[in-house]
Amino acid sequence: MERIVCSDLKGAVMLVGKSNNGVHGKMDQAILWVLIGLFAVPIFVREMVLSNFYQINIFAALGCLFVFHVTLKGGKLRRKDFVPYLIIVCLIVILALSEIHAGRTLKGFVRVFFGLIMPLPLLFYEMYNPRKTIRIIVYTFRTVSFLIVCLGIVDLVLGRRIIVSYFNLAHDANYANMALGSIRLYSYIGHPLYNAELFLMTFGLNYIYGELFEKNHKQDKWVILITVIGVALTASKSAIAIFLVLLIVLYVKSIRYTVFILAILAIGYFYGVFDLVLQRFSGSLTTGRAEVWSRISSKGIKFFHFFWGNGSDSKYSYAYLEEWARAAFEYPYRLYALEFGILFTILIFVFLFVIPEVRIIKNCTRWILFSIVFLAVVAHVNTYNGIGTYSDPMYLYCLFGCTMLNMSMLLKKENLDE
Known about the structure:
By secondary structure, this protein is an all-alpha fold. It is built from 20 helices and no strands. 68% of the residues lie in helices and 0% in strands. Keywords: Membrane, Transmembrane, Transmembrane helix. The chain crosses the membrane at residues 30-46, 52-70, 82-102, 108-125, 137-158, 193-210, 222-251, 257-278, 335-355, 367-387, 394-411.
C-alpha cells in the first residue's frame, strides 16, 4: 500500500501525463492544495510559525480559490451551481450583519469567513480528472489514518511525550494540558473527535472505492483494523456507535468479514481497547451538554434571533450563567443559530447536508450505499462543534462531500453502477 501511495503522491506533485480522463492524468490542483493544507500543514503546524491568523488554512483556502476560479471560468455560473452560490452570497450577507450587530472586529470576520464560508464552494466542485484525484484522496486518507493510529499507540507507551511536545512547539498550552491529562487519542491534526471523524470518512470512502471502482475489498481488513483501534482510542461514543452500525450494514452479507470483525472486536475487548469507551457510555451520552443547556435555557434569556445572530464566539459571553455554559452550544445547529441566526442555520444546513444528499440520490443507482456512508458522517459531524471552530474541520467535511459527489457522478458517467 505504501508504494502505491508514494507513487500516487509523486504523480500528483509532478502532474505527469496528458490525459484528463484516466487514472494516469493530472491530479486536480485544487484538491492537492486542500490535502496539503489539511494533512501536511494542519493548524498546529501553522501555529508554530504564525503568531496571528494561524487558524486560517492558507493552503486549503488557495485550493478553494482554484475551485472558485474554475467554477466561474467564462464569467457565468452553470445552472446547477446557481442555487449553491446564491446560498453562499446570502450566508456572507448574514454573517456580515451578525458581526456588525455584535460589534466584532474585521479580524474576527476574516477568521470566520476563511474557516466557514471559504470551504463551501469545494463541496460542489466537479473534478476535471476524478479517477486520478479520487484515488489519491482515498490513499491519502488511508495513509494519514494509519500514521495517526500508529503514532498514537507509540505515544501511549511513551506517556504522551510526543504529542505534548508537539503541542508545546505549537505554543498551545491548552492542548498540551488536555493531551497530558487524557488517554484519548490526540494527534498532529488535533482533537480526538476530529480524529474520529477522519477515521469514519476513511472507512466509508475506502468501502465505496473498493466496491465500485477497484471491484475488490483487498484493503478492507487493514482499514477496519485501523478504524476499530482509532475510534476506540478517541473514545468517541457517537463515532463508535456509528462505526458499529456501518460495519453491520455494509458487511452483514459477508461471512468472512463478519467473522473477522467479531474476532477484532473480541480481541480488542479482552485487551482493554474499549475500556475507556465503555466508561464514557456509563455517563451522560451528551457529555453534559444537554444538562448544561437544560439549566441555562431555563434562565429566560433569548439566545436566538431569526435574521442575524450575536456574532462569532458569542458562546463565551454566557460564562456568567455558569462556567461551562459554552458547552450547551457545541452542537452545530445551536452554535450557528446563536452566533449567526436561525435563517443562517437553515441555509447552511441545506447547503451542507440536504443538497448533497439530493444530488447523491439523483446521480446513480447505488445511491443507497452512498447515502448510508454520507449520512453516517453527517450524523457524527453534528455531534460536536468541529465545523463551528472556523478552521480545518469545515475543509475536511467539504472535501469528503466533494469526493462522495464526484464518485457518484463518475459512476453515472461510466455506467459502473449498472
